[in-house]
Amino acid sequence: MTTPRGFRDRADDSLLTLLGEIPELIRNLVIAEIDAAKVWLARTAKDGGWGALWAFAALFVLFWSVPALGTWAIAGLSSWWPVWLSALVVFFGMLIVAVVLALLGILRFRKIGKRQNPAQSIAQDVKEVRDEL
Q1: Rg, Å, the chain Cα set
Q2: What does pTM read for this prediction?
Q3: How would residue 19 be classed by pLDDT, with cut points 50, 70 and 90?
Q4: How far is CA 85 from CA 32, 69, 88, 97, in A?
Q5: What three-state secondary structure class fits 123?
Q6: By CB neighbour count within 10 A (0-12 exposed, 13-18 middle, 19+ buried), where does 116 fall?
Q7: Which residues contact 94 (CB under 8 A, 6 or more apart)?
Q8: 115, 43 in Cβ contact below 8 A?
């Protein structure tokens, strides 16, 4: 007989049959924990890579935008405003773009810490097994 989730009903199995299946169940648990660790590591590496990419993008914009685009914008705005005011407006605009890109990188790095570490789930499994004994 199977349960609604597709698992076999084990109520009629003997104690020796159930004890004989413990090594297989432990093996399956260890394999599942290792697979969970692999998935966690892959996600963590991906988020770390994206966070580093956003931080690099922020530095790239900050480094190359100021001399190239900044000079062009200052020259354009100085036809309406004084040169010093044009330069100040362009500087703060570039600073805002760099801050937004840096915040995107920080948010991606923070996402790493919010996931459950597979070591924590293994420790929880060990604790539950010890509590049952």
Answers
A1: 29
A2: 0.46
A3: confident
A4: 62, 16, 5, 19
A5: helix
A6: exposed
A7: 61, 62, 65, 66, 69, 70
A8: yes
Supply 119's token pair: 């070591």
Q: Give the ranges where 66-82 is alpha helix by DSSP (H).
A: 68-77
Q: Are 94 and 65 in contact (CB under 8 A)?
A: yes
Predicted local confidence at residue 102, as pLDDT: 93
pLDDT tens digit sequence for 60-105: 888 887 788 778 888 988 899 999 899 899 889 989 989 999 999 8
What's at 132, amino acid-wise?
Answer: E
- Say if CB 124 and CB 36 are below 8 A apart: no
CB contact at 8 A, 49 and 112: no
CA angle 105/111/117 to nearest 5° reads: 140
